[in-house]
Amino acid sequence: MTHTSDETVQKANTAPAGTRGTRTDRDASPAAHDEAHHTDVSGGWLRPAVFGAMDGLVTNISLIAGVGGGGVSPHSIVLTGVAGLVAGAISMGLGEYTSVRTQNEQVEHEVAKERRELERNPVAEAKELAEVWIKRGLPPELAHEVATALSHDVDQALRVHAQEELGIDPHDTPSPWVAAVSSFVCFSAGALVPLLPYLFGSHALWLALVAGAIGLFVAGALTARFTNRPWWSSGLRQFVLGIAAAGVTYGIGRAVGASVG
User: What is the tens place of the pLDDT at every residue in 49-65?
Assistant: First the structure.
């Protein structure tokens, strides 16, 4: 054993300089063995958190721009912004909880139906699974052999069938409470940003809009951490979309304020 190891080391050391350490290093510590190789995409918190933060920013920037464009007092602007923050955060939290809970209940229903089919007719289900694998390029004999062996364990067969036929993992569904809390907290944080200048004593609408615009860019840039997009591109995209929404509501506010006044 020692002799073989020495030969391996010697071959590695005498390899050409351009290739030395490349394949060996990659195989020695593959990325798939690293627990942090992938981010969590199924925990149920990222989508509601991003959606909540962006919605809070856009909603309150638009509200403040709309009522501010209508010529109301700073006190009314703050009251409108706070009401929008509270109502929006509660609505987002309840909406996320209900939607994720309903989705999980639908998954449970489909998984229960699949379990009944596996228990009643395992041979037909194994054949169906094998045909799926054959279409993907697996040799027919091997596909039928693996599917038949898998059918003897209902729990494992159920997990594989759910993944192949429904595209889900029945043991890895998102938490409705995580989604609700993430959405509630992030919406509140986003909606608070354009209110900060008023809460610190400023009466200038433009300052609130600037604070909101900065918040939009920063929030968009932070989402790039979970994607492959450049941070400035994600930030700029959210900045443009949010400012466009604020511009529309400001124009409507000006028009309504002028007609009512």
Answer: 999 999 999 999 999 99
> Residue 107 pLDDT more than 80?
yes
With contact defined as beta carbons under 8 Å apart, do 209 and 64 qualify? yes
* Predicted pLDDT at 9: 39
Inter-residue contact 248 to 58 (CB < 8 Å)? no
Question: Long-range contact list for 118-124, CB < 8 A, 24+ apart?
Answer: 118/151, 118/154, 118/157, 118/158, 118/161, 119/154, 122/151, 122/154, 122/157, 123/151
- Say what the pLDDT of residue 228 is: 83
pLDDT of residue 1: 44
Q: How far apart are CA 58 and CA 70, in angstroms?
A: 18
Q: What percent of the chain has pLDDT over 70?
A: 83
Q: Look at the block and give the residue holding tokens 């938490």.
A: 175
Domain ranges in the chain are 46-101+175-260, 104-166
Rounded Cα–Cα distance for residues 203 and 198 (Å): 6
pTM of the model: 0.77
How far is the C-alpha of 243 from the C-alpha of 177, rounded, in Å? 31
Question: What was the pLDDT predicted at 261?
Answer: 60
In this structure, the dihedral spanned by the alpha carbons of residues 34, 36, 38 and 39, taken in order and rounded to 10 degrees, is 170
226: left (phi over 0), alpha (psi -120 to 50) or beta: alpha
Measuring CA to CA, how many Å separate 206 from each of 105, 142, 181, 202, 209? 46, 68, 31, 10, 5
Burial state string for 186-216 with b = 16 or more CB within 10 A and e = fewer than 16: bbbbbbbbbbebbeeeeeebeebbebbbebb
